[in-house]
Specification:
This protein has nine helices and no strands. The protein is mostly helical. Helix 1 packs parallel to helix 8 and helix 5 packs across helix 9. The chain binds prephenic acid (PRE).
């Protein structure tokens, strides 16, 4: 585990995030998937269709062993007596007492309450299950990336244990945030994801050159507005990753 390898991981995860939001943008908003039907209120199904879809999908993937690797954390943890996949002895580089840190609740809420209406066009085509399936992929990709802040923080702690230890003992969140921040790196990340949205989301035809999205071409030629992907990282993904890093560090000496 080194700063280079964790950054390589975050870079590769960008592809998954961009592809998954391009897929979600195929469908209109499909609002009924996110509302709790009145006839469910108070019952054990008191949740939106999208939530029920994620719960059941995660239950299947938990049984299949998906969360045996600590890199991924389910939104709805689910206990199973045994798992179906061949066993594998995952080692973890995380500090055990801090490994639980995650921001899945915040990710869930931002995705449904703030991001989705910026991504999907208004409308309802009834494809609720396909829509929820693509939401699930977006949520998994975002969760994996943001909660990977635990690994980034572990690397940073090991690289400078003395300074981090002092700040952790003082529970100085602001100073921890400052010490782990690299504004130049954040800038690289945001510009790169915007470019990925242009490259992965361009319209490809069999003849003529590949359209490269320069800043003059209209945004309508991209499947997802590249500036929305920039905003996703600028306002949510990077700040939440940093919050995960701080929370992890606060438990790093427990
Ligand atoms: O690459 C790092 O050093 C990270 O901590 C990750 C990250 C990010 O979310 O991309 C977060 C904080 C830093 O300011 C820079 C980048």
């Amino acid at each position: 585990l080194s700063l280079d390898t964790v950054r390589d991981f975050l870079t590769r995860e960008e592809d998954t995030i961009v592809f998954s939001i391009i897929e979600r943008a195929k469908y209109p908003l499909n609002l009924p998937a996110y509302e709790v039907p009145a006839y469910f209120a108070g019952s054990r199904h008191d949740a939106s269709f999208a939530e029920l879809f994620v719960r059941d999908s995660e239950a299947v993937q938990t049984k299949a062993g998906r969360y045996q690797n600590q890199e991924e954390i389910p939104f709805f943890p689910f206990r199973v007596p045994f798992i179906l996949s061949p066993s594998y002895n995952f080692t973890s580089d995380l500090y055990p007492a801090a490994a639980f840190v995650n921001l899945n609740d915040e990710i869930w809420s931002i995705y449904f309450n703030q991001f989705l209406s910026l991504l999907a066009k208004n409308g309802d085509d009834g494809n609720y299950a396909a829509t929820a399936a693509s939401d699930f992929l977006c949520l998994q990709a975002l969760s994996k990336r943001i909660n990977y802040g635990r690994y980034v923080a572990e690397v940073k702690f090991r690289g400078d244990p003395q300074n981090y230890t002092t700040l952790i003992r003082n529970k100085d969140k602001d100073a921890l945030m400052k010490l782990l921040t690299s504004e130049s790196q954040e800038d690289v990340v945001k510009r790169r994801v915007q470019k990925k949205a242009m490259v992965f989301g361009q319209n490809v035809t069999s003849n003529g050159p590949v359209e490269t999205g320069d800043s003059n071409s209209s945004q309508a030629s991209f499947k997802v507005d590249p500036s929305l992907v920039y905003k996703l990282y600028d306002q949510w993904v990077i700040p939440l990753t940093k919050q995960v890093e701080v929370e992890y560090l606060l438990h790093r000496l427990d």
